[in-house]
Amino acid sequence: MVRQASCLSVTIPVFAEFSHQKLSNFTFPTRQGTILRHMLTKAIARIARILFVITLPFLFFSASIAWAVNSQWLYTSGFAKQNVGATTGLDKEQLAQVAKGFISYWNSGEERINIVVVRNGQYVPLFNEREIDHLVDVKTLFQFDYRMMFITGAYVLGYVIFSLYRRKRDNLRGLSKSIAWGSGLTLGLMLSLGAVALLGANAFESFWYQFHILSFANDLWELDPAKDYLLMLVPEGFWYDAVRDIVFATAGIAIVCGGAAIAHLIYHRDKKIGSYC
């Protein structure tokens, strides 16, 4: 009995030590997996935040372009400023119909534009085949802008909803910081675009030429301002004003959003400091 008890007393510590080592080996990967998951979650959150900041300028800019190409006021005021009525022979009412025709075409499923005007008492097409072919290419660019606006808008909306859903102070502060950074990036890009395209006597002419070279795979945009009504309607001066308005609209959106984000950060910082007093 003494011998058996002695064997048992030896066996129990050995078994306990073996069980402890086995349990330690079993739980270690779990702790390691938790650490890895935490690191992965932080990395994904950081990437998502960086993408959000980068996405904001694209959303603001594409939304401003979408507003401009669908603004009846932009067309009619541009026609008046460029004295398009005198160069085309179209009265104010017909020019308003032309503006509506442009807007309708950008948002329709029609491949080719068909605007009819009254000339010498007869209804005739406003544009020739070369002009119509070029407008097909222009519509493709505007449709691309729409897609970019919807895709970036969906990502930004999803990111904001997720941040608000979690409703943690750090998440809301992080969201405000991201909006402020994205708005600041937008202002920097618009300042650069404005400096390149809108400043200097020949700056816009050079910018507009390079834009057409990069955006179109053909020379259909090379039209004759003496006989092609498209250039009479929207000459270079018209597009200068349009680009300026788009830049200002984009910067305005960035200022409003960025200002609101910064105000939120300042308010909650002061509130946090007050809670310590």
Globally, the shape reads elongated
State the domain count: 1
**What is the arithmetic mean of pLDDT?**
87
For the secondary structure, the number of strands is 2
Assess the beta-strand content as a share of residues.
Answer: under 5%
Residue share in helix: over 70%
Give the spatial strand order of the biggest sheet.
Answer: 1-2
Assign the structural class, choosing from mainly alpha, mainly beta, alpha/beta, alpha+beta, or little secondary structure.
Answer: mainly alpha
Major sheet summary line: 2 strands, antiparallel
Would you mind describing this structure in some detail?
With about 280 residues, the chain is mostly helical. The protein has one domain. About 80% of the residues lie in helices and about 5% in strands. It contains 9 helices and 2 strands. The protein has helices at about 1-70, 70-80, 85-90, 90-105, 130-165, 170-195, 205-215, 230-235, 235-275, and strands at about 115-120, 120-125. A two-stranded antiparallel sheet has the order 1-2. The longest helix is centred in the N-terminal third of the chain and has 68 residues, at about 1-70. It is elongated. About 20% of the residues are buried.
